[in-house]
Design brief:
This protein has 553 residues and is of the alpha+beta class. The protein has 18 helices and 18 strands. It is globular, with a radius of gyration of 24 Å.
Length: 553
């Protein structure tokens, strides 16, 4: 597959995903399943709890907006990554400047209006509008030159330069900006009324929202390409306390609850099923401002020191004792088994060796770098939303560094107080190591650029005024990746990008984590989550009742 044009690769991916979804689609075409009961899902956060896609970030979109909205590009349900959505296929023009999306026929919004290319164009225009809070709004405005509705089922998007990753950026596998909204309805009732009574085209219809408490949906009763729900109703409840969520699942008040790794064993002992969703994130640590002139004499400015710190980490111990065995050794930075244009097996073998535990070699490297007695290191321990266990991972890492002679000054931050430190010149982070994470997405370049590009927010390699060899090389590779259409050449460029970052030891994965859920097997039957998709918003319609498909013993 790697030696074909990108257009062919996209076509193959679409074909695979369509074939994987055919049994379910065929089943719904024959007869709508008997719908009964209420599926209750307890979560730790409802984010902004808004049902307008232009006012919500990824967590909310992926948890509850995904239930009622479809996306222009969807998932490969079985493998993770990109697959068909509202658009059943798409292709790139010979000059690399125009993407054409073909809308699948027969889709409709909850009020009965047909889903057309006009709705897709209108939705993207809303996401790009000045009033949009979409994280990619500015990028879309720079990227998209014009949009044309060729006919009701064809949308043509012209870009400002080759944009190979555009379909992925409009997939819910990556971001929420591809959500499809009803043009005629919004123009008729206005935005304020739409936000009170939203409609989409997904498998679940909005019923009501109680701020700070719950969201309620009702299943559609007609065939849908994502699957027609087995349950009649879906309730998503805000329950901040994990112990309360688990108790609700035990008593049957809820069918499913999000949990952390520390709760998995007790939940299993209590008779609940525990679902682990693979490849959802990497917990990592990274060094800030190592490129700055004022850090040139700092230990963290030396790659061998940074490598030594990695060798001092017993990742397997963290997997077993912090993550209760529900994690795995990582691929390189921001890479997963399902990552596109990436030699996953080759790099996994490299990572298993490079990320080994070898404290003797670590001490030797420190001595050779001029630090036989260790050094002092400021370490910011923090957890991004939804992955509170990162703090425990960071604490374990700091303890392991102490054992090779490093004096670690650890400071724990709430994410809300740490996040602003990344902005601008990052004066408070210069020379600091911190916990961070990546999330599971199929397209690697966007995440690499966000961390290492000279114009990015984090710019770990450098910025405009101080862009050294690695910084300049990264910008060149990234620019080439944006334009490269040949699959084999794109994979070669990805290898160069991964190697460049891996050799510098600036951002180092610790573990590959999962999404974790406790399930009452008397309330919901066996189902599979989407690899790399922590949230379950795109899975509710595929969940059977307990008597329809019991969990295997």
């Amino acid at each position: 597959m790697r030696d074909r044009q990108i257009v062919s690769v996209w076509a193959l991916a679409v074909t695979i995903a369509v074939s994987l979804s055919q049994p379910l689609a065929a089943q719904t075409q024959k007869a709508t399943p008997a719908q009964k009961g209420t599926l209750v899902f307890a979560v730790e956060s409802l984010s902004a709890q808004t049902l307008d896609p232009i006012l919500e970030g990824r967590p909310g979109n992926a948890t509850y907006q995904a239930a009622m909205y479809d996306s222009l590009v969807g998932f490969d349900i079985a493998k993770g990554g990109v697959g068909p959505g509202v658009a059943e296929r798409w292709e790139l023009s010979d000059d690399g400047l125009t993407w054409t999306f073909h809308i699948r026929a027969g889709q409709k919004f909850h009020n009965g209006d047909k889903v057309t290319a006009h709705d897709a164009k209108f939705s993207l225009e809303r996401q790009m509008a000045p009033t949009s809070l979409a994280s990619a709004a500015a990028t879309l405005r720079r990227t998209i030159k014009s949009m044309e509705v060729v006919d009701d089922l064809t949308l043509r998007i012209k870009t400002d330069g080759p944009q190979i990753g555009l379909p992925a950026s409009l997939s819910r596998a990556v971001a929420p900006e591809g959500a499809i909204m009803p043009k005629a309805y919004i123009e008729k009732v206005g935005e304020e009324e739409f936000r009170k009574k939203p409609i989409g085209s997904g498998p679940w219809k909005f019923v009501r929202s109680v701020p700070g408490d719950r969201l309620e949906f009702e299943a559609i009763d007609y065939p849908h390409f994502r699957g027609t729900p087995r349950f009649k109703n879906l309730h998503i409840l805000l329950v901040p306390e994990e112990s309360t969520r688990v108790s609700m699942v035990r008593t049957g008040e809820a069918a499913i609850a999000s949990i952390g790794p520390e709760t998995m064993r007790s939940a299993a002992r209590g008779g609940l099923e525990v679902l682990s969703v693979p490849g959802t994130m990497q917990a990592l640590y990274q060094f800030w401002g190592a490129f700055r002139p004022d850090q040139k004499d700092s230990p963290i400015a030396k790659p061998r020191v940074r490598e030594a710190l990695s060798l001092a980490i017993d990742r397997q111990q963290i997997i077993e004792h912090v993550m209760n065995g529900k994690a795995s050794m990582p691929h390189p930075f921001a890479a997963f088994e399902y990552t596109e244009y990436f030699n996953a097996k080759t790099w996994k073998a490299w990572a298993d060796k490079a990320y080994r535990y070898d404290p003797v070699a670590a001490k030797k490297m420190l001595a050779e770098a001029g630090y036989p007695n260790g050094f002092e290191l400021n370490f910011a321990n923090t957890a991004l939303p939804g992955t509170q266990f990162m703090v425990d991972v960071g604490t374990a890492v700091a303890d392991m560094w102490t054992k090779i002679g490093v004096k670690v000054n650890i400071k724990t931050y709430e994410w809300g107080s740490f996040s602003p430190l990344q902005m601008g010149e990052q004066a408070q982070l210069a020379g600091v190591a911190s916990m961070y994470r990546t999330v599971g997405r199929p397209d690697m370049p966007w995440r690499y650029n966000g961390a290492f590009g000279s114009k990015s927010q984090q710019h770990l390699f450098g910025e405009k005024e101080h862009c050294g060899v690695e910084c300049q090389e990264f910008d060149k590779i990234y620019a080439a990746l944006l334009a490269e259409r040949d699959g084999e050449k794109r994979t070669e460029l990805t290898d160069r990008m991964v190697k460049l970052v891996a050799d510098t030891w600036i951002a180092i994965p610790i573990i590959e984590g999962m999404g974790y859920y406790a399930i009452n097997p008397r309330k919901v039957g066996q189902f599979a989550a989407i690899p790399g998709r922590h949230e379950l918003g795109d899975v509710f319609e595929r969940m059977p009742s307990a008597d329809e498909k019991p969990w295997k013993k």
